[in-house]
Amino acid sequence: MSGITFNGGMDIMPLLIGAGVLLTGIILTFALVVNSGASRRKFRQRIDTIKMRNAGAAPEAIAHIRRDNEGQKIKGIDWIVKHLLPRPAVLKDRLNRTGKDISPAQYVLACIVLTLVSALVSFFVLSQPVFIVVPMSVIFGIGLPHLIVSRMIVRRINKFLDSFAEAIDLIVRGLKSGLPVTESITAVGREMPDPVGTEFRQISDSVRFGQSMEDALLDASKRIDTPDFKFFVISLSVQKETGGNLSETLENLSDILRRRRQMKLKIKAMSSEARASAYIIGSLPFILLVILYMMNPEYIELLWTDPRGNIMSGIGLGLQLIGVAVMAKMVKFEI
Questions:
Q1: Burial class (CB in 10 A: 0-12, 13-18, 19+), 55
Q2: According to the 3-state scheme, what is the secondary structure of 66-123?
Q3: What does the pLDDT look like over 50-89, one tens digit per residue?
Q4: Could you tell me the pTM of the whole model?
Q5: Which residue of 53, 110, 257, 332 is most buried, as measured by CB atoms within 10 A?
Q6: Last residue of a domain, which of 128, 149, 176?
């Protein structure tokens, strides 16, 4: 069966197939996000209703609703998460650190959709052989969501640290005015912007619903996996065990966190030249590829039309990624 062609003889059937596959993937992803947001809003409304009706019965009722909400999962994908996915609890904690309502089943579904879309586009549109399509599609389908989640976690932690010292100062002022620690934490959740306000509101709600302060802080430290917040948790735990002036301890901690942040910014400024060099060196192969394609397309097209070129491209891309990772490690300093 002949395909649809332009006047110049170019077959556009693969392009139509690829566009259809991409459109299907976008629709599935959009439907998944909308369904997740709607169910989450409904879940929060039910909790707020129970809080208003009977505060004494809230812990048991909310626990029941949470069990029901956890049962609203994607059939089939949930079985993969439970039986085939290694360490699903680690993935769940990682997704919780993003601050978004992303379940492991939704994450796995996104990986599957991206893998299938990448495989179909590579096979039908780019006409790549199967032994290239399969590994590259798997790497793309698993690697892209992983990188996006990592970026979301880093961005949220950096945003949290930007206001964390001010949150500690607010707790110190509350303690000096005679408020207990729980009320001071509640004030932080009410006054500070997200994500600091969100995390402290979760701590306050957990304590109000019957969880101990230590357990609530440990749960928060799993979501905010950073040394700065762990210092805060340790300070509160040690003060409860040994006593002492908590306001003075937290005031010193706030000063230390500010000094750490100043040191990080200073190191970032001093390493800016090395980072710029890494960006330039990492982008040179791709810039050269575009220039050669513009000057002589037939010469450079062998990299993706010939199987030997595919192998060379894969090896080169792998070496490029290793080099970028090494350069990123060289310009990153831990304080």
A1: exposed
A2: HHHHHHCCCCCHHHHHHHCCCCHHHHHHHHHCCCCCCCHHHHHHHHHHHHHHHHHHHH
A3: 555 544 444 444 444 444 444 445 666 666 677 677 788 8
A4: 0.69
A5: 110
A6: 128
